[in-house]
Write the structure tokens for this entry.
Amino acid sequence: MTDARVTVYTRQACSLCDTAEAEVARICGELGVGWGAVDVDGDPELRAEYGDRVPVIMVDGKEHGFWRVEEPRLRAALT
């Protein structure tokens, strides 16, 4: 994920995570921006940090938002 500007922290069986991933994939695809997803349950530190707030959207390594994708705001951050 070295070329990913956007990272979505997720977990399995999370409907908000599924929605956020789909929205981020669509937006990043339209803008030609790399993105990736990380399952927080695979890492105890990530689970402790983000577990109650997933999905968490990171842009360029900084927290951009959580629970829902704010499309206009995400687009602005990526352009």
